[in-house]
Each structure stands twice: as C-alpha cells, then as structure tokens.
Amino acid sequence: MIKITLENKEYEFPEGITIMEILDHIGSCDKRITVGAIVNNRLADLTQQLDQDAEVRLLTINDEIGNRIYRRSLFMLMQKAVYDIFPDSTLLIEHSLSNGMYCEIYKDTPLVQKDLEKIKERMNEYVKMDLPIKKFFMDKETLKEYYLNRGFTDKADILNYIEGEKVPVYELDGSYDYFYYNMVPRTGILDRFDFHMHYPGFILLFPQRGEPYKVPQFIVQNKLANVFYEYEKWGEIIGVSNLSELNNIIERGKYHELVRIAESFHEKKIARIADAITEEHEKKRIILISGPSSSGKTTFAQRLIIQLRINGIKPVSISTDDYFVDREKTPRDENGNYDFEALQAIDLELFNEQLLELLQGKRVEIPFFNFHTGQREYKGNYIQVDEEHPIIIEGIHSLNDRLTEFIPDNNKYKIYISALTQINIDRHNRIPTTDIRLIRRLVRDSFFRNRPASKTLDFWPSVRKGEEKNVFPYQENADIMFSSALIYELAVLKKYAEPLLREIKENEKCYYQAQRLLELFYCFLPMGEEDIPRTSILKEFIGGSAFF
Of 8, 154, 178, 262, whose CB has the highest number of CB atoms within 10 Å? Predict the structure, then answer.
C-alpha cells in the first residue's frame, strides 16, 4: 500500500493505482474539468500509475497549466480530424487570439465555412466515441520516419535537437504526435469547443479560466490580429517561420545578419510610432504606454524618447508609481494582501489634477513614493512643460481610461506593447507569449534583483492574475501595438535561464514549472550575443543596456 495526500486528506491505495482510479474512488472532483495533476511537484497525466507515497495536486481548466493541457489536447483532436478530411493539407496552429487560437489550413482549395463544419462534426464524433489518448515512448528515428512520410519536415528536424533515443509521444486512433504538454486521458473530455471563421484562417474557441463549462464568444481583436499577421509575414520574408529554420541559421553561424535585421525592424517600427505622434503632437499631449510584465516597456519608452527628440520633440516622463496612496490606504486582495496592482492603489484624483495643470503650462511638484516607508513624499521635483513637451506615462493601467478620466481622449496617444510570439516550435506546437515574458523575468530578477528563479516562479501566478484583470481587457484601446519579441531571443536567453532553472530542487512546488521550461529550451541551439546592440530591448533583461 502507498499513502496519497490529495486535497489535504490522506488515503491508502494499492501500489500501481492510477490517478484516474483514485478520482473514481474519492468521487469529489468534477471529471469534466480535471485534466491533469502535479505529483510530487512533477506534471503528470491522469493515467499515470503511482508506485510510491505521493502528494497529488489536481489540475483543472481553471488553472493556467490545466487550461493549456485542455487546449493542447484539443489541438491533437483537431489535427486528427483535419488530416482525416483533408489528408494532403497542412495545418498550422499559430497564436492566441480572441478567446481561442488562430490556425490556418493550406490545401488545394481555399478554406470555407463548410470545411470548418466538417472538421467540427468529425471532432464531435471522436468525442462521442471517447477514445483513449495514450502516452508512450517511441524510438526517435521511428517517429522521425513517421513525420517525414507525412511531410512534417519541421517536426522531424526538431527531433535532431532532443536528447535521448526515445521521446514521449501521444497516440489517438493511430495518429501520433509529440506535444510539449501533457494530454487529457480520453477524447470524451474535449466536448467544449467551437470554430469561428477568421480569414484566411479560423479561430479554435475553447473554455477560458473561470468558466470551464462554457465555450466563449469570439471577440473582435483586429489590432492584435494585424500585429500577429505583420510579424508572421515578416518571418516568412527573412526565412525564419519556425524553430528548425532558426536552428539551421545558428548552426551555420549565419545569425549575425538576422540580429541586425530584427533590431532594425524594431527601430523602424518605433520611428514610425514617433512620426505618428509628431504629426499630432499639438493635440496628442499625453503618451500612454501599457503592457504586461517583462514586455520591455522601459526600454521601449527610452527608444521612443530618442526618436521623438530626433523629430524635435522633447518629452518628459511621469511614473504612476509615484502616485501610490499611502500604504495604509492601499486596497487588499481576497487573501488580505496589499494589492499594489489595483487601480485604486493610485491616487487618481491627484494624478489627473496634476496632468491637467501640466497641460495648462503650470509648474507642478511631482511626488515621490517611498517604498520603504510606504508614504508619499515631496522632494522639490518640479516640472513644467509647454506644447513642445508631451508627457509619457508608462504603467499597467495606462490604457484604462479611468487612469486619465479627466483628460480628453483626443489629447491621448495610446501604445500597447507585449512580447507577441514570432516563432513556433513546429506547425502544431506554439511558444506562448506568456512563457517568453516569464523567461525574460527569470533572468532579469536574477541579474538585477538577486531573486532566485523559484521566487519568480512562485510569484508569477499573482503577476498573471493582475495582467488578466488590469492589462489585457484594455489592449484593444491602443492606437497602436508594438511587439517587443525578437525572433532570436530564446536562443540567447537559453544560456542564462537554464542554469537558473536547474537550481530548482525536486522538493520545491515550482519544480514542475522549471522542468517544463527546460524542456522548451532543449529544442533551441544557443546563440552568441556579440551583435546585439546596447539599445536592444533584450539588454533590459540580460544586462548591458544603454539605458540602465
């Protein structure tokens, strides 16, 4: 017998019992939303057998990792249906959009609504059949041959960079695929999904965290879609649309030009934003910059200032952090902790009052917030601006109109910045934007805040919660969006992040997260950084920035 701790209760079961069998025994969880587990701080499928004492944490669609497990399992079900109906087609799973995932299907005729209806019908047939999704280890050369026979050269190439002779593979009714996440045990769980035609592809919709039984409606996000489309086409132009193509460039030592092109592309985009602001600078007096954690907002703001100066504009910056209310007035979250990311943590009345005074040409003393004492102080920091001096405000709430509710909308220029994924591992495995930002933050926290990776990983769920509440709902309010992702950056971050992740021990709760990120890095060849300029957004995270 072995001892299993689950939901703060201890049980005894025979050795070799699976997690699914345990769930059948205790009967206290909803199998429609339970998709995986963490066993002794390792990710596990529900079909995993337990042969020793274990602490088990269940993962549901409401958990970030659990939600990824559900959607990745949908990907496998979808690709099975697509290749059943259109055997000679190519399915590309590209990036998140709206409440789902944007995908494209390349075949001999254009994709139409009836095609999606056929795919949906076939997927529902498999759901009703409740087929098993089995995990096993396959010889790498056998899997490579299987991929090549199906024309999946990108997937076959990636296997060359994965260590070991065998790789974990999931099988669904004779279809095999390698996914970088665990899977649900059976197709019967995958009964919540829908499609929305989004030319030239479509959106696969699936339940979001907090509403696990509901397929959400499609939400129009044209600005975000246009940014992804632009970067996708740019990747095709330079010949780097997936990881195997990037690895090939690195392996041949031809990455120097790639770095220069990627950085020049950033510079050109920032210059165009500065030009747009300059054209309306007499009206657009307030420049608002928002984005989630580790998007490179600070470096972006500094580079924007340089471009504005080139255009004869002299902006000044104000930090919303200096307008925090005194500590005792800070709102608290549901756990009783100070919620510094809440909009109410900012003295909105004072902030708007001083902005209006500055726009009127008055001299204003900007406060300073002392984070050690938790009190606002005044240290004689007076500023005064005229019509040639726009005010740059950078912060997570910048696109929320309540932050600047007393400022007319036609006086604002709103910018949203995030590290929007430019490169996927292969046609069926995307690299989430969230993971890029998390890896950036791991490295930056270690370099500049002396914070171990385990602390960053433990705190990350709180960061994500704040982003989903305070940033993402307002991103379409932006006048323009900027992707700070660099197509080569994970190849550079690899040498910095891997040692940090390996320091995390098996007894730490975030161990499974560390192992998940390490598995992602296994596919990347390391790349030199000698050509990265000091003004690069990446330098904000690895050090050597010209701005810090």
Answer: 262
What is the layout of strands, in order, in the sheet containing 194-198? 90-97, 100-106, 201-205, 194-198
Q: Are residues 411 and 266 in the same domain?
A: yes
Contacts of residue 207, defined as CB under 8 A and 6 or more positions apart, other chains included, come to 61, 67, 70, 192, 213, 214, 215, 216
- What are the strands of the beta sheet with 316-319, ordered from one edge? 316-319, 391-394, 286-290, 412-418, 480-483
Q: pTM for this one?
A: 0.92
Long-range contacts of 214-221 (CB under 8 A, 24+ apart): 216/99, 216/100, 217/99, 218/98, 218/99, 218/100, 219/98, 219/99, 220/98, 221/97, 221/98, 221/475, 221/476
Give residue for tokens 């009714």.
Answer: 173
pLDDT in tens, 224-283: 888 888 888 888 778 898 899 999 999 999 999 999 999 999 999 999 999 999 998 878
The C-alpha R_g of the chain, in whole angstroms, comes to 25
Q: Are 243 and 423 in contact (CB under 8 A)?
A: yes
Q: Does residue 343 contact residue 470 with C-beta atoms inside 8 Å? A: yes
Question: What's the number of domains the chain is made of?
Answer: 3
Q: Judge if 164 and 233 occupy the same domain.
A: no
Dihedrals phi, psi of 14, to nearest 5 degrees: -70, 145
Residues 183 and 280 in one domain: no
Look up the domain containing 29 and give its range. 2-60
End-to-end CA distance of the chain: 58
Tokens 């050690």 -> residue: 372
